[in-house]
Amino acid sequence: MGEPAFPAGFLWGTSTSAHQVEGGNENNDWSEWEKQPGRIRDGTTSAEACRWWNGSAEEDLATAASLGQNAHRLSIEWSRLEPEPGRWDDAAFARYLRLLAEMRRLGISAMVTLHHVTLPRWVAARGGWLARDIVSLFARYAEECIRRLGGSVDHWVTINEPASVAGAAYVSRYWPPALGSVRAGLRALGAMLEAHAAAYGAMKRVHPAASVGIVLSTPRFEPARTGSRMDTLICAAQDWVFIGSLLRALRTGTLLPPLAGPARPPGLRRSLDFLGANYYGQYAVRFDPLLHERLFGRHVQEPTVRAGECDWGQISPEGLTRQLVRLSAMEVPLYVTENGIHDAADAIRPAFLTDHVAAVHEAIRRGADVRGYFHWSLLDNFEWAEGWQPRFGLIEVDPVTQKRTLRSSAHLYARICGSNGATASGRERGSQGSP
Ligand code: IFM
Fold first, then answer.
1. Over the stretch 291-339, which tens digit does the pLDDT of each residue have?
2. What is the pLDDT of residues 121-142, one digit of tens each?
3. Residues near ligand 1 with C-beta < 6 Å?
4. Is residue 357, in this structure, part of any structural domain at all?
5. Which of 202, 281, 306, 420 is the most exposed place for a label (fewest CB within 10 A)?
6. Strand order in the sheet with 282-287
7. Which residues touch 118 (CB under 8 Å, ≥6 apart)?
8. How many structural domains is the chain composed of?
């Protein structure tokens, strides 16, 4: 197999999130939302999801370990841990502790996200990310989590994809609370950055050596028409609102327009020990004077895969390399915390997987300090407003029977993990795409 292609100790894993896999979450904003007619495109609900809360997590992670994965990124469910303001649920903490202990036994490093899309109902009732006291509530929750689970977690993520949540839930009406207001979205985004900083500070006070970061969605935006000044301008504006302004805020501690909130949220400057990048593809942005809620930019690329309103962009491994090189300016270790494609037939995924791992390798070659790659997802799960139709898993799941079937890509990824990436790096690409 030759020299390992990636740095020693590289994390090879997969990602999931609590609401998407646990099942039986009845106390968060999505549990109510997904039951309302028309909210979920295929009419499904998360229901039992993948039954991770009731024991399947350990079995699925044992499969992951047997496939050579040495890391997993999961999220914990705030509504289970703090079902009412200030009341901590010991049994829920114990459940996560059992899971984390099993991961350690299996040799799987744990990256744990505190907030991945859902909010407890009681937080949502106060206004969610617009609630007056959301920053202190989130910091208190983060502090309790690190106190109780800190010894079992290798990396903490405060918030997953703040800009996606602000966009889908506050600017659009695609996720709850469906406010449909650009202003609310920008306030929610500012609040998430403020809450991240407060959580970071609270966690470091408990465990100064803890590794705490944030995960951003980092699609690539490109002007649709070369030479069009308007496309170029709007493209830069979308990139700024979705990615650039967040990077800048995290680096300098200052919220610049259009982000709303205090100009310098306490503790925001350099409040990250690592940065996670979720990357699915590239958007071609075309000026459209009527599309104000999308900053006058329509995405006109031919999507490789689309589900309903959700378009993960055009496949572009090169875009991942470029984003990782760009993110290096943050001067912290980087992780690809999500990357994947919904492809029930597993026809596109093998080449997608190999090419994106190779793209990470190329970024490292160009100087990016990338320490791990987490494929989205280990197994099919509940894809929010799109329901169960998009299938992102290396493992196929029948949500009714709960039967698991390994897709070819699961075996391909096992070879990548087992060779520390050599089978997908530039040097040994002979079998590219073949399962
Ligand atoms: O399933 C989602 C995940 O929850 C957040 N990032 C994108 C994934 C695929 O859409």
1. 887 889 999 987 777 666 678 889 999 999 999 999 999 999 999 999 9
2. 999 999 999 999 999 999 999 9
3. 17, 20, 117, 161, 278, 338, 376, 383
4. yes
5. 306
6. 220-223, 282-287, 297-299
7. 18, 19, 25, 28, 29, 30, 77, 78, 79
8. 1
